[in-house]
Amino acid sequence: STDQAGGPDEAQSRPASAKAQRHVLRFAQSADGSRIAHAQSGEGPPLLRLGHWLSNVELDWHCPVWQPLLTALGARHRLVRYDQRGTGLSNRELYAATGAGITPFVEDLLCVADANGLTRFPIFAASQAVPVAIGFAAQFPERVSGLILYGGYSKGRALRPSAPGQMDEATVLSLIRAGWGQPRSAFMTAFSSLFMPDATPEQLASFITMQVETIAPDKAAELRQIVDRFDVADLLGTIRAPTLVFHALDDAIHPVSEGRQLACGIPGARFVPLRSRNHVPLPQEPAWHLMLDEIDGFLSELEAGGPKPAPELDSPASEG
Question: Where are the beta strands (DSSP E) in the chain?
């Protein structure tokens, strides 16, 4: 349940569990007028978790898939997160996103950072949020202190050649249109299992419920077509923020080669392969603990003044 506080643009959520952290929900306006829902919880140095597909800043707080990750990321940080445009509590219409590439998504990130008073901060981005984080870091390098990238890519699915055993765009769209949000649909069960093959029945059921609560089937297909065309490959070499890249070795949604490409293209990036087949990180697998230990160490180094950013590229004028 959500209690209204401070007017229509602010809400304070009270989780059912007395042990759960309090979080505060607000709205910000992006450059094209889109309403972007964002939430803040925890205390300490800031950490911004980017919005991605299938999120809802209110429901995530109680979801057995996302709540453990939110708790871990917010254990010693002021965690700011938001719903991607078209999803969750943000505007369900995509507006300028259609045909405009990645720019509106970068503008959404900017408006959330500004609304929360974040001048310089580390970013946690997963899946399709990864190219958005890279686009933002390339455009606003002075604001990004570090990048933590999980299961991402630099070229969307529609722009890269499909390999045997990999999901192509047509297959993903067919699964969405055939059974989106229908718990008894074989299509939807197969689709959800691709994201989390090792999920518990409770986690899988929650993931399917989230589909209904975050985006309609036609909009889900439209959004997938947009994010499957994100392309930041040419920006990788310009990133100067310290970067940590995670990728599950047997990820069926975006192959591990995409993670290697990110780590190879971003100067000084560190690559951590995870022995997992889950595109969505799950707390019951050993890879979860490795990931959290690496994130904690990385953020501690950032807050202590390191790791050092990659060196600046020589300008053409300085080349002899």
Answer: 2-4, 10-13, 23-29, 35-41, 46-49, 78-82, 121-126, 144-150, 243-248, 270-274
Tokens of 172: 């993903």
Residue 142's CB is within 10 A of a number of other CB atoms, namely 8
**Of 253, 220, 34, 4, nearest in space to 150 by CA:** 253
Distance of CA 302 to the CA centre of its chain: 20
What is the three-class DSSP state of 67?
helix
Query: What pLDDT is recorded for position 310?
Result: 60
CA distances from 120 to 130, 147, 313 (A): 18, 12, 22
For strands 46-49 and 121-126, give the pairing: parallel
The upper half-sphere exposure of residue 102, i.e. CA atoms within 13 Å in the direction of its Cβ, equals 26
Taking the chain (320 residues) in runs of 10, the rounded mean pLDDT of each run is: 35 37 90 96 96 90 92 96 95 78 96 98 97 98 98 93 74 81 77 89 88 86 91 98 98 94 98 96 96 98 79 42
Closest Cα partner for 223 from 158, 165, 280? 158
Instruction: For residue 133, give the 3-state DSSP assignment.
Output: helix
On whether the pTM is more than 0.70, the answer is yes
Contact 36, 111 (CB under 8 A): yes
Q: Phi, psi at residue 151, to the nearest 5°?
A: 60, 35
H or E segment to which residue 243 belongs: strand 243-248
